[in-house]
Design brief:
The chain has 470 residues and is of the alpha+beta class. The protein is built from 15 helices and 18 strands. The chain is 28% helix and 23% strand. Helix 2 packs antiparallel against helix 4, helix 9 crosses helix 12 and helix 12 runs antiparallel to helix 13. The longest helix has 15 residues. The radius of gyration is 22 Å and the shape is globular.
Length: 470
Amino acid sequence: MPDDAIKTAASRPLPAAIEALKRDLNGKVVLPRDAAYEDARKIWNGMVDKRPAVIVRCLHTSDVVRAVSFARESGLPLAVRGGGHNIAGNATCDGGIVIDLSRMNTVSVDPALRRAQVGGGALLADVDAATQAHGLAVPLGINSTTGIGGLALGGGFGWLSRKHGLTVDNLESAEIVTANGKVVRASATEHPDLFWAIRGGGGNFGIVTRFEFRLHPVGPQVLSGLIVYSAWDGKSVLRKYRDFMAQAPEELLVWCVLRKAPPLPFLPPEAHGKDIVALALCYAGDPAEGGRLVAPLRKLGALVGAHVGVQPYTAWQQTFDPLLAAGARNYWKSHFFAGFEDGLIDAVLDQARRLPSPQCEIFIGALGGATRRPAVGAMAYAQRDAEYTMNVHGRWDDPADDARGVRWARDVFDATAPFANGGVYVNFLTADEGARVKSAYGPNYDRLVRVKRQYDAANLFRLNQNINPD
């Protein structure tokens, strides 16, 4: 993008303002003419190819304050980047300013208090490495390259959630830069309305520069791994999986993935590329007890292969990173379900036979346990009655496959909609699903609008799954 695009993106020419911004920062400003620009503008989803006018790589909270003021005064659209992993591509924009927090990634742990202070730009891998050094963890997602900011502000669930709740359930406080450039601390006793809203309401209310999380003893070794069945046995396997999870203790999480078998070393070569149902499991307790508990999962059908054992929790957290590497083209669709009934199993299996790419998959995640304990109105995240979530991972490399891949993902969504509870996980919403934002919050939506009016009436923070203050 030529530099004069900066002028057309805002209400007045900005070169002098940009020079002043550079002088005020501890971090760096990256412009389209700079050598670092092409790498700086890239995000995880290869379908999103946008060219911001200004990228501000912040080092300290004061940099974020200055960048927010710059965006507010200039009229430039404002995007906020943590890990850049959001499926909708909200971490970037055309012709606007990107506030990049990725260098604000420090994590400090107080093992005695079981608390972690986490920079707003940290990745899940950063958090896991620091907390596991003390045998502690906060429930996070399953891809270690995800940013903590987007994950936590939308909810956040993973291998520990049945036992210890969502990421956002373990948030104690947050340092936030608001739309007027103020730095506030939000907690149960300080700005409690704001604290209520950021726990699930996304980046609508400000930029979180530091999180404080409650930690739990986990690992550092956990029982985890994969058990793989042929899709020909899929109906029996999924029914037995459902029945197993209805009796499983909260320490155990088992999710299932329907896809083409990748060339994993524990699978026979003749299985590679064939349709499979894979059970992915993690036991957040004594590994010996976990081994006895998961033994029945090896007997749900004709086993193709299994690789279950004791390994570092940090290693298990990174297991799926290669399947979700940055740069591919991604399109998702998602539902929540109150149960996993037979009709839903039939619909999922039918759609899994139509995968448009070997990288595509249908993910079914069991929730329940601690994720259901908070009241619906306890915080912005409202999907407390969900026992299962489904995310349709449409993923491919060639732009020529876009139409086919998107159509398949929507077909899966439509086929499974009769069994859904009407809710949706806000972090799984794509760029074309703004109409579903209210469904993510249910009865909490009107309160979120009131908090939005209080803290961002002009909707400066609108490049997100937006809660419109009007």
